[in-house]
Design a protein that fits this description.
Number of strands: 5
Number of helices: 16
Radius of gyration: 22 Å
Structural class: mainly alpha
CATH topology of the largest domain: Collagenase (Catalytic Domain)
Strand content: 5-15%
Order of helices and strands: HEHEEHEHEHHHHHHHHHHHH
Length: 454
Amino acid sequence: MKLRLALLALLALSACVSSGNLDTPTRAAVADTTLPPMKNFATPQPAPPARANRDIARDFLDLSFQLESGRKLDRLTRFEGPITVRVVGKTPVGMMSDLQRLISRLRTEARIDIRLVRDSSANITIQSVSRREIRRALPQAACFVVPNISNLSQYRSARRNASTNWALLERREKLAIFVPNDTSPQETRDCLQEELAQAIGPLNDLYRLPDSIFNDDNIHAVLTGFDMTVLRAYYDPALRNGMTRDQVAARLPAILARINPRGEGLSPRNLPATPRSWIDAIQTALGPGTAPAARRVAARQALSIAQNQGWQDHRLGFSYYALGRLLQSQDVDAAQTQFLNADRAYARAPQLGPHRAFVATQLSAHAISTGQDQQALALIDPQLAVAAQYENAALLSTLMLLRAEALDMEGRRQEASTVRLDSLGWARYGFGPDWAVRSKIREIAALNPLNGRF
């Protein structure tokens, strides 16, 4: 299940949270023509997994034979034969092009025989509905996937049936994905990416994965090179529906050697498993329904666990980052210290994605607010290409808006105006409605101590 935690961050990130049913995979209008047209990403830029095949094999097994609740799965379940996908409901702007692009990637990168159809007998039905309808069915979920139904109206009566229980599933033949049609284009796309990947592939998430959408830290927005490698292995002809963990484990080395020969020559890192105590602390700190003081206590607990574990990987950086976010409203200087710690931790961890870019938004915002325009630019500039590579328009537009303020502070007003205008097309994709875009512009402009425009 995808417990996408609602990070209390500068960015309006897509989120899915626990809703009580821990075995249900979830993920948590443009009218004003005075803003420039919405932009979107054209050519995927996935980096191949830079990890040993021995690590990938372990990750594959842990992703495929356990639910996020900790419940074990006895057998591998997947579709056999071509997979067909249809879409019903009122689709928002950009959704179909994003879905077609995703299916094209699954066909070319993961080598999965999957295609869009109009037939009601499709294996996978993607239903586009309002957020209110989704939350009425599964409170606090932004989107989710369920086996053996095809319509949201069926979910309430079917959710306690054995047919919709992932742990009892013997094969995948029909399922439904429910995505919102009244949110930002990026959030809808992120839901499509996560839920379709789980609909056809692994159901678990692992915090130890630094380069995957199968992780609850909300860092990756689209399927990565690692994810495509896992999905390609999932549908390799050497595997079949119903195989046990031991049977899959026996065949994985040969599969990975064939589809990812680069991983044969790399040394395994053997990152330790993530203890349940850290997961629970992070979910308390960043999930819903907890008072601010209790969130901060939980975040400190998570950081303490990470330090006691001796972690030097991305999970230590995320622990610092989460605590920094929760301290901002209480103690700006203490929050800044945690963000600096997060940046140092991420800098030591190899082969990360946009992790440091998220921290850069916080560090550069502080630099701008204290008049350090050159420091802000030094933080922002290396991360612009990273945000674009990992297709996070909300992150990219935020970095660009911050850069525009720093350029204004340097007196480079024409350049600042160009950057700000260029950011708005990405903001329309990342944040959605014009009021949300304008709110983000005002929020970032207010950081500039010299700024009197707003």
